[in-house]
Amino acid sequence: MINERVTGSRVIRSALPAEAEAVAALHARARATYYPDGLPDDGIDWVAGWRAAVARPDGHVLCVVERSRIVGLASFRTPEGAPADTVKLFQFHVDPDHWRGGIGTALHAACVEQWQADGRRNAVLDVHVDNRRAQAFYTRLGWEPDPENPPAEGDHHLYLRYRVTGE
Questions:
Q1: What rounded mean pLDDT belongs to the chain?
Q2: Which residues 6+ apart lie within 8 Å of 6 measured at CB?
Q3: 138-147 residue pLDDT tens
Q4: Which residues of 72-87 are buried (b: 16+ CB within 10 A; e: fewer)?
Q5: How far apart are CA 65 and CA 5, in angstroms?
Q6: Average confidence (pLDDT) over 157-166
Q7: Is 43 helix (H, G, I), strand (E, B) or coil?
Q8: pTM score
Q9: Is 103 exposed, middle or buried (0-12, 13-18, 19+ CB in 10 A)?
Q10: d(CA 40, CA 109)
Q11: Within its chain, how far is the Cα of 134 from the centroid?
Q12: Pairing relationship of beta strands 144-145 and 122-128 according to DSSP bridges
C-alpha cells in the first residue's frame, strides 16, 4: 500500500480517520460542480461514510496534500462479487480551486501504482452523466466505456473500464 509519495510540494498518502471531515468537505465541493440545480440532499452522513471507507481493511483512500490541506482524494476497492483482479474507483475528486494543476493526473498515477502492486488488472468506475469534465479526464487517461455495463435509459451514470498494465 502507498504509505507516502512525494511529488514536488505534494504528498500523496493514505487518508487518516481523523481527516474524514476534511475529506467529506472536499467531496461535497467537487460534487457540487456537476449538479446543475445544486447538490441534492441525499441524506447520507458523508463524514461517517468517509471514516468507514478509510477504516475498511479491504479498501484504500488516498489523498493529495498540499500545504497541509487535502486537495484531492480517491477511494477504491474490489466491488462485491467482482473477480479478485478487478478494482472499482468509487470516488475520485480534486478540489475545484485546484483544477488543471496536475493533481488529478498525479493521483490517478498513484492509484494505478497501487492497483499494480495489488495485482489488479481491470479497473471500473461510474461517472455522473453531467460531469463532462471528469469524463474528458478519464478518457485522456485511457478509460473506455464498459461494454459489459452499458447505461440503461434514464441512468444518471456512465460506466467506464480501464486496463491496468505494466509494473
A1: 86
A2: 12
A3: 999 999 999 8
A4: bbbbbbbeeeeeeebb
A5: 10
A6: 90
A7: coil
A8: 0.86
A9: buried
A10: 31
A11: 11
A12: unpaired
Contacts of residue 165, defined as CB under 8 A and 6 or more positions apart, other chains included, come to none
Tell me which long-range contacts 3-12 makes (C-beta under 8 A, separation of at least 24): 5/110, 5/113, 7/106, 9/66, 9/67, 10/64, 10/65, 10/66, 10/103, 10/106, 11/64, 11/65, 11/66, 12/62, 12/63, 12/64, 12/65, 12/72, 12/106, 12/107, 12/110
Q: Cell for 78?
A: 474490489
- Distance from C-alpha of 145 to C-alpha of 44, rounded to nearest angstrom: 28
Q: How many residues does the chain have?
A: 167
- Give residue for cell 460542480: 33
C-alpha cell read off for 38 = 445544486
Q: How far is the C-alpha of 8 from the C-alpha of 164, rounded, in Å?
A: 25
Q: Which residue has the cell 488516498?
A: 62
2 or 90: which leads in pLDDT: 90
Q: Nearest CA to 79 among 45, 19, 110, 120?
A: 120
